[in-house]
Amino acid sequence: MRKLLNTLFITQPDVYLSLDGDNIVLLKEKEQLGRVPLHNLESVVSFGYTGASPALMGYCADKSIALVFMTINGRFLARVIGESRGNVVLRKKQYRASDDEKMSAEIARNFIIGKIYNNKWIIERMTRDYPLRIDVDKFKETSKHLSSIMVEVRECIDLERLRGLEGQAAISYNRLVDEMILQQKEDFYFHSRSRRPPLDNVNAMLSLAYTLLANDVASALEGVGLDAYVGFLHRDRPGRASLALDVMEELRGVYADRFVLSLINKKIVNKKDFFEKESGAIIMTDDARKKFISAWQNKKQEKITHPYLGEKISWGLVPHSQALLLARYLRNDLDEYPPFLWK
Predict the structure, then answer these.
(1) 101-129 vs 136-155: helix axis angle to the nearest 10?
(2) Helix, strand or coil for residue 269?
């Protein structure tokens, strides 16, 4: 159980939610695990299937407290709320901002700053931790280049220019990814990003990591009442969760890339976990995919201190914290959307 920005997150499995007076009560096999007053809550997010009492659902509907249900792995199931009050206003503001390219650019540049900053931190950490195993001068030069791009991004209010700057930063960062692979170099290498299909072992893992991250972010956005398919940097396209792709930009490197690198460098995966199809596509075996997803779920349980909120949360709640902050910005409760700047 974790309270964050007027939202209560129920992360324990098999917990039943009930009402006692003006309090939400957490029960597991009739044993009370916790009790939280409802009067200051905007929403309750439960990871699990057990459910909530009709009395609690009725109380929350009457008080406009959203009840959000996720699977234990973080996939969005449903968001239950009473009369559409704040939610419809929030989505209308999201749609208006998306239709306005200048407003979209003002939001999108913070996603990009978060991405570049975090990639710069990954590079700096490599120079600190492995100075004898990498080309430190090359890494430092790239770090300096990313800093200069961030200065330009901070002042940019043109979407096309922002995409160009993000592309420059991505090229610079990607040139170093192969050097961050410190083990199993014959079997794991990164020359460029290949998506459909992935053409090497590293790209196969990156594609799966990005898919899992996009699903987690989309669930978090739906959980706070935002439309995951209407973005600011990524524009509307049928079937594409554009806002989820926007928000996950700042988490790609620091969350997904580092996760994949750790699996390789710790030898949790090896060449036997992959096979090549006739088309040239590299595919993970079923056992390897299960091992990958299990490690991903374990990663989500690791604790960190959120750089903006200053509170200790699990990695799995980071997409939810960013979704809450984005919703607060769109409601004009914050002057600016604060990207996730990890260090």
Answers:
(1) 160
(2) coil
d(CA 290, CA 292): 5
The response to whether 320 counts as a known ligand-binding position is: no
Q: Known binder of ligand: residue 306?
A: no
Token match 């199993």: residue? 184
| Measured distance CA(153)–CA(162) in Å, rounded | 6
Dist CA 78 CA 96 (whole Å): 25
Q: Is 27 helix (H, G, I), strand (E, B) or coil?
A: strand
Q: Is the dihedral of CA 309, 92, 106, 247 positive or negative?
A: positive
74: left (phi over 0), alpha (psi -120 to 50) or beta: left
Let me know: does 254 contact 339? Beta carbons within 8 Å: no
Please give the average per-residue pLDDT across 140-165, as a whole number.
94
For the segment 56-85, the average pLDDT, to the nearest whole number, is 79
- 31 labelled as ligand-binding? no
Give this prediction's pTM: 0.84
- How many residues appear in the chain? 343
